[in-house]
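Title: Prediction job returns without error message
Component: structure pipeline
Severity: low
Priority: P3
Assignee: unassigned

Description:
Job completed but the reporter wants confirmation the result is attached to the right record. Sequence as submitted:
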Amino acid sequence: MNLSQPDCNVTVKFKTRQCTTATGVWTDIAIIGWTVHGGCGGFDSKTYFHHNFSGLKEYVILGLLSDFRFTQGIEACPDSRILANVYSAACGVWVCCEYTVDPASAVCETGWNGPPPHYGTAPTKVKSCKWQSCGTTCCRRTYSVCLKSIPSGNNIRDIQLLGKEKLGPCSGESQYAKPCEHGC
Protein backbone atom coordinates (compact mmCIF):
# COMPACT_ATOMS: atom_id res chain seq x y z
CA MET A 1 0.00 0.00 0.00
CA ASN A 2 1.32 3.46 -0.87
CA LEU A 3 0.68 6.44 1.39
CA SER A 4 1.33 9.89 -0.04
CA GLN A 5 -0.37 12.53 2.10
CA PRO A 6 0.58 15.73 1.08
CA ASP A 7 4.37 15.45 0.77
CA CYS A 8 5.40 12.22 2.55
CA ASN A 9 5.48 9.18 0.26
CA VAL A 10 5.74 5.75 1.97
CA THR A 11 5.22 2.17 0.78
CA VAL A 12 3.91 -0.07 3.59
CA LYS A 13 4.31 -3.88 3.66
CA PHE A 14 1.90 -5.73 5.94
CA LYS A 15 0.17 -9.06 6.58
CA THR A 16 -3.44 -9.51 7.64
CA ARG A 17 -5.76 -12.14 9.04
CA GLN A 18 -9.43 -12.03 9.90
CA CYS A 19 -10.72 -13.53 13.17
CA THR A 20 -14.33 -14.26 14.05
CA THR A 21 -15.05 -14.30 17.78
CA ALA A 22 -18.16 -14.21 19.95
CA THR A 23 -17.85 -10.41 20.12
CA GLY A 24 -17.51 -9.88 16.37
CA VAL A 25 -15.09 -9.90 13.46
CA TRP A 26 -11.54 -8.60 14.04
CA THR A 27 -8.86 -7.87 11.49
CA ASP A 28 -5.27 -8.26 12.68
CA ILE A 29 -2.70 -6.25 10.77
CA ALA A 30 1.03 -6.75 11.26
CA ILE A 31 3.20 -4.07 9.65
CA ILE A 32 6.37 -5.86 8.55
CA GLY A 33 8.15 -2.83 7.14
CA TRP A 34 7.93 0.39 5.22
CA THR A 35 10.04 2.27 2.70
CA VAL A 36 10.18 6.07 2.70
CA HIS A 37 10.37 7.50 -0.82
CA GLY A 38 10.76 11.14 0.22
CA GLY A 39 9.26 14.18 1.86
CA CYS A 40 8.95 12.64 5.34
CA GLY A 41 11.68 14.57 7.15
CA GLY A 42 9.37 16.77 9.24
CA PHE A 43 8.03 14.08 11.58
CA ASP A 44 8.91 14.23 15.28
CA SER A 45 10.69 11.36 16.98
CA LYS A 46 11.69 10.91 20.60
CA THR A 47 13.52 8.11 22.38
CA TYR A 48 13.43 8.10 26.16
CA PHE A 49 15.04 4.93 27.49
CA HIS A 50 12.74 2.09 26.31
CA HIS A 51 9.94 4.39 25.11
CA ASN A 52 10.24 5.22 21.41
CA PHE A 53 7.89 7.65 19.73
CA SER A 54 7.96 8.16 16.00
CA GLY A 55 5.59 10.55 14.26
CA LEU A 56 6.37 8.71 11.01
CA LYS A 57 5.33 5.36 12.56
CA GLU A 58 2.07 6.94 13.78
CA TYR A 59 1.52 8.37 10.28
CA VAL A 60 2.07 4.91 8.75
CA ILE A 61 -0.32 3.21 11.21
CA LEU A 62 -3.08 5.80 10.89
CA GLY A 63 -2.61 6.05 7.10
CA LEU A 64 -2.87 2.28 6.79
CA LEU A 65 -6.04 2.19 8.91
CA SER A 66 -7.53 5.05 6.90
CA ASP A 67 -6.89 3.44 3.51
CA PHE A 68 -7.20 -0.28 4.35
CA ARG A 69 -10.03 -2.14 2.60
CA PHE A 70 -11.64 -4.26 5.30
CA THR A 71 -13.44 -7.36 4.00
CA GLN A 72 -16.33 -6.76 6.39
CA GLY A 73 -18.20 -3.47 6.22
CA ILE A 74 -17.23 -0.65 8.54
CA GLU A 75 -20.10 0.17 10.86
CA ALA A 76 -21.24 3.53 12.17
CA CYS A 77 -19.64 4.72 15.41
CA PRO A 78 -19.61 3.62 18.22
CA ASP A 79 -20.55 0.00 17.36
CA SER A 80 -17.46 -0.96 15.33
CA ARG A 81 -14.27 -2.53 16.71
CA ILE A 82 -12.28 -3.72 13.76
CA LEU A 83 -8.55 -3.84 14.23
CA ALA A 84 -5.61 -5.09 16.25
CA ASN A 85 -2.22 -3.76 15.14
CA VAL A 86 0.94 -5.64 16.20
CA TYR A 87 4.40 -4.06 16.54
CA SER A 88 7.64 -4.47 18.50
CA ALA A 89 8.62 -2.28 21.44
CA ALA A 90 11.97 -1.80 23.09
CA CYS A 91 12.81 -3.15 26.56
CA GLY A 92 15.32 -1.92 29.11
CA VAL A 93 16.42 -2.15 32.73
CA TRP A 94 18.26 0.09 35.21
CA VAL A 95 21.43 -1.57 36.55
CA CYS A 96 23.24 0.05 39.48
CA CYS A 97 26.52 -0.03 41.36
CA GLU A 98 26.57 1.00 45.02
CA TYR A 99 29.67 1.65 47.14
CA THR A 100 30.69 3.41 50.36
CA VAL A 101 32.92 6.51 50.63
CA ASP A 102 34.80 6.59 53.93
CA PRO A 103 35.56 10.12 55.24
CA ALA A 104 38.83 8.86 56.75
CA SER A 105 40.15 8.20 53.22
CA ALA A 106 39.91 11.88 52.14
CA VAL A 107 43.27 13.42 51.14
CA CYS A 108 43.09 17.22 50.97
CA GLU A 109 45.96 19.42 49.77
CA THR A 110 47.49 22.22 51.86
CA GLY A 111 45.34 25.31 51.57
CA TRP A 112 42.03 23.45 51.18
CA ASN A 113 39.54 25.49 53.26
CA GLY A 114 36.27 23.74 52.32
CA PRO A 115 34.54 20.74 53.82
CA PRO A 116 35.61 17.22 52.83
CA PRO A 117 34.36 16.32 49.35
CA HIS A 118 31.80 13.89 50.76
CA TYR A 119 30.17 16.54 53.02
CA GLY A 120 30.01 14.66 56.28
CA THR A 121 31.82 12.67 58.91
CA ALA A 122 29.99 9.32 58.58
CA PRO A 123 30.54 6.89 55.70
CA THR A 124 28.36 7.81 52.70
CA LYS A 125 26.80 5.40 50.19
CA VAL A 126 27.05 6.34 46.52
CA LYS A 127 24.76 4.71 43.97
CA SER A 128 25.39 5.08 40.25
CA CYS A 129 22.85 3.68 37.76
CA LYS A 130 22.91 3.09 34.02
CA TRP A 131 20.17 2.24 31.52
CA GLN A 132 20.75 -1.05 29.65
CA SER A 133 18.75 -2.34 26.71
CA CYS A 134 17.33 -5.83 27.15
CA GLY A 135 15.87 -6.53 23.73
CA THR A 136 12.35 -6.15 22.37
CA THR A 137 8.87 -7.49 23.05
CA CYS A 138 5.73 -7.77 20.98
CA CYS A 139 2.94 -5.31 21.74
CA ARG A 140 -0.62 -5.28 20.46
CA ARG A 141 -2.18 -1.88 19.92
CA THR A 142 -5.95 -2.27 19.54
CA TYR A 143 -7.87 0.32 17.54
CA SER A 144 -11.54 0.95 16.89
CA VAL A 145 -12.33 1.92 13.29
CA CYS A 146 -15.81 3.18 12.49
CA LEU A 147 -17.65 5.60 10.21
CA LYS A 148 -18.47 9.03 11.61
CA SER A 149 -20.81 11.56 9.97
CA ILE A 150 -19.42 15.06 9.52
CA PRO A 151 -21.44 18.30 8.97
CA SER A 152 -20.96 18.18 5.17
CA GLY A 153 -23.00 14.95 5.12
CA ASN A 154 -20.01 12.74 4.28
CA ASN A 155 -18.67 9.90 6.40
CA ILE A 156 -15.05 9.67 7.56
CA ARG A 157 -13.18 6.91 9.34
CA ASP A 158 -12.89 7.61 13.05
CA ILE A 159 -9.81 5.79 14.43
CA GLN A 160 -9.41 5.46 18.20
CA LEU A 161 -6.63 3.72 20.13
CA LEU A 162 -8.39 1.45 22.65
CA GLY A 163 -5.35 0.03 24.42
CA LYS A 164 -1.87 -1.46 24.39
CA GLU A 165 -0.92 -4.92 25.64
CA LYS A 166 2.44 -6.65 26.08
CA LEU A 167 2.18 -10.11 24.50
CA GLY A 168 5.40 -11.74 25.69
CA PRO A 169 8.62 -11.32 27.66
CA CYS A 170 11.46 -9.05 26.62
CA SER A 171 13.93 -10.94 24.42
CA GLY A 172 16.96 -10.27 26.67
CA GLU A 173 15.24 -10.48 30.08
CA SER A 174 17.15 -13.56 31.25
CA GLN A 175 20.42 -11.56 31.39
CA TYR A 176 19.32 -9.53 34.44
CA ALA A 177 18.32 -10.29 38.02
CA LYS A 178 15.26 -8.01 37.85
CA PRO A 179 12.47 -7.72 35.26
CA CYS A 180 12.92 -5.50 32.23
CA GLU A 181 10.62 -2.55 31.58
CA HIS A 182 8.84 -2.39 28.23
CA GLY A 183 7.74 0.48 26.03
CA CYS A 184 4.27 -0.79 25.16
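Comment from assignee: result matches the submitted record. Residues 55-67 form the longest helix (13 residues).
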